[in-house]
Design a protein that fits this description.
Number of strands: 2
Helix content: 40-55%
Distance between the termini: 38 Å
Mean pLDDT: 82
Structural class: mainly alpha
Strand order of the largest sheet: 1-2
Radius of gyration: 19 Å
Length: about 190
């Protein structure tokens, strides 16, 4: 069965197999849960997707391109003194795409994108990989002389909400850590 919905799918089948059948607690992946608001904000400002790797709006059309070839222009930094700072040990276990997002966030916060990062190619932009979409939004932001309100708002959301939430979830992945660590994000709301 397809794993969707409350009245059909794999989750329902597991509940029915229990003796006696009873409700179960669902615990979604918090990292994936944080992608939903970014996705909705992106669609609100840029329009819906037109395929798995394409969007209908101007920002979406830019982020799927070769953003690493765009020149970095003088851009307005987007300060976030509350951006999480983690030690090199945590950063060392991250994937290339995850490291790229963190470096782009720090660069936009500080107002400086180093030369190596400017030439680095981010992961592929798809409608289901919002980590790379967030990084590509930032890369387009630092390459746009006069970013639109929509692009600025998306970049600000990535810097102040999406990336910090993702980093905290990555650093504290257990459900038991959730309430204590995610309350830190309340100040971003």
């Amino acid at each position: 069965p397809v794993n969707t919905g409350w009245n059909k799918g794999a989750f329902r089948e597991i509940k029915l197999q229990l003796d006696p059948p009873r409700p179960l607690q669902r615990s979604p992946c918090v990292v994936h849960l944080f992608e939903l608001p970014l996705e909705k904000l992106f669609v609100y400002h840029d329009g819906p997707t037109t395929g798995p790797e394409s969007w209908s709006g101007p920002i979406g059309k830019l982020i799927v391109g070769k953003v690493h070839t765009f020149p970095v222009v003088a851009f307005d930094p987007n300060p976030n003194p509350d951006f999480p700072q983690f030690d090199d040990q945590l950063v060392s276990i991250l994937t290339t795409d995850q490291k790229y997002l963190i470096k782009m966030c720090r660069g936009v916060i500080e107002g400086n994108i180093d030369t190596d990062l400017q030439k680095s190619m981010p992961g592929v932009a798809t409608s289901v990989r919002f980590l790379t979409t967030g990084a590509r939004i930032l890369r387009v932001y630092v390459s746009t002389p006069q970013p639109s309100y929509e692009l600025t708002r998306l970049a600000t959301y990535v810097i102040t909400c999406y990336a910090p939430a993702w980093l905290i979830a990555k650093h504290h992945p257990k459900m038991a850590n959730g309430p204590r660590h995610f309350l830190q994000l309340a100040k971003f709301q």
